[in-house]
C-alpha cells in the first residue's frame, strides 16, 4: 500500500467528533472543536500490555474572531 492508502485505511478506524459554533447573523465559524480517539497505526510496534487498547486521544479547539480586521504580524528575529 502507498502511504496515502495506509492513512486512509487508518482513518477508517478513527473515532472523531467535530463541533462547529456558527454565528446566527453572519454564519461565520466562531469555534471549532474536534475530539479524537484514534488507534495507533501499528500495535506490534508499541508492545501494549495484554488487554489494553493503545489509542491517540486528543481535543483540538480553535476560536475565530475579528473577521476582516487588519492583522499586524511582526517578522521573526
Write a concise synopsis of the structure shown.
The chain has two helices and three strands.
Which helices and strands occur, and which strands form pairs?
Elements: H1 3-11, E1 15-22, E2 29-39, H2 43-46, E3 55-63
Antiparallel strand pairs: 1-2, 2-3
Q: How would a crystallographer describe the biggest sheet? A: 3 strands, antiparallel
Q: Ends: how far apart?
A: 43 Å
Unreliable spans are none
Percent of residues in beta strands:
35-45%
- Sum up the overall morphology in one term: extended
- The average pLDDT value, as a whole number, equals 82
- Rg over CA atoms, rounded to whole Å, is 19 Å
Features:
alpha+beta, 3-stranded antiparallel beta sheet, single chain, 2 helices
Tell me about this structure:
- This protein is of the alpha+beta class and 77 residues long.
- It has a domain at 3-44 and 53-63.
- It contains two helices and three strands, in the order αββαβ.
- A three-stranded antiparallel beta sheet has the order 1-2-3, with no helix packed on it.
- It is extended.
Amino acid at each position: 500500500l502507498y502511504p496515502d492508502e495506509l492513512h486512509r485505511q487508518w482513518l477508517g478506524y478513527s473515532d472523531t467528533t467535530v463541533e462547529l459554533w456558527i454565528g446566527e447573523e453572519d454564519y461565520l465559524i466562531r469555534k471549532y472543536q474536534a475530539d479524537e480517539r484514534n488507534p495507533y497505526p501499528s500495535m506490534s510496534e508499541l508492545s501494549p500490555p495484554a488487554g489494553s487498547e493503545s489509542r491517540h486521544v486528543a481535543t483540538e479547539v480553535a476560536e475565530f474572531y475579528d473577521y476582516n480586521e487588519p492583522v499586524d504580524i511582526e517578522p521573526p528575529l
